[in-house]
Amino acid sequence: MSKTTDADIRAELGLRPVINVSGTMTSLGASIVVPEAVSAVTRILSEFVEMGDLHRRASRAIAELTGAEAGFVTASCSAAISLAVAAAITGDNLWAIEQLPDAGPLRNEVLIQTGHMVSYGAPVDQAIRLAGGKVVPVGQATSAHGYQLAGAITERTVAAVFVVSHHVVDYAQIPLKTFADICHARGVKVIVDAASEYDLRRFLADGADVVLYSGHKFLGGPTSGICAGEKSFIRNIYLQNRGIGRGMKVGKEGIAGVIAALEAWKTRDHDGIRARERAALELWMETLEGRPGITPKIVPDPTDNPLDRLEVRVDPETARITAWDLASALARGERPIIVRDHEAEHGLFFLDPCNLHPNEETVVAARLVEELEKAQRANEVIHTSIADRWLAQEAAILNWPD
Ligand SMILES: *Cc1c(COP(=O)(O)O)cnc(C)c1O
After folding, report:
1. CATH code of the domain covering residue 144
2. pTM beyond cutoff 0.70
């Protein structure tokens, strides 16, 4: 996973050289694409291919790793959600495929637990609506029961979406196996969004008709979405490229890159990677332990991916800075360090070691020390309002392209 010797393209483009300790974030360019995929992308870009055959080849690669009957590559996991819903609605009806998002008389209700209606940068329910699906929430934000799912199924119900993510409500939701049993008893297709999950087999084993992954997250492929599932369902997803899938298609380079990333996954040195991540966590742990107001702790991934992170708890009175002000300070400057701060209001953030280039962990450690020492010397506790921080972030959305 070493960098190429070419000069950093970011300087050429006037971009800040970000160090990513927040995880696989689309807003930062997702992940480090594995060398095998980089090579495949480069080698296919200048060639012509029969796209149907390239898709067939990808289908075999996906099937081999997931144990599914077939697979399909699209632009993103978000696109895959739309296309899977579309396929459930239209089946192989080519006319209906061209009519979407107008589902006409076809069944189009799509169930989703209210606690799963998250945003991964865009609302998951919108990905359903884009395909002509009518979203039917099941249960309340804080709980959903099997009887509520069964009760919500009507003669208009065509599919149900199940989201696996650290974003979803993580208690009192219907487990996938139960969810799938209830849906299948009534002929409802189960679509599992497992965008960021490492486990390529569990969700199909638990009853998914199709499982969807991001190619550009843990897998280290180019930007893409991967569908794996039952053959005719996958074929019907593929057929959506004649309809709404046209604008969500992936090019030859994306497909070749995904195939290469899947192949590389088979031989990836998972233990070696884990050991390197562990070394980074331990370095940060040693760096932070004993510093006033800072409590570091190694914690497992909330959805059981084989990945640990460093939770950094910040007591503003003693550390003399809040968790979010520390996160903001690290993100400023010549070498921005982006931490995982979506829970900063709880007084903590995480350092995620899975997207580091060699030696970046030492830069992170040094910057932490620098900002914490600066805070100790400050006359007042550095404490901006979190409400103001949110408003500023919201306002910043509209600043582009200036
Ligand atoms: C990242 C993510 C998505 C979107 O994936 P893209 O491939 O970036 O479109 C969807 N669902 C979940 C749970 C995610 O984490």
Report:
1. 3.40.640.10
2. yes
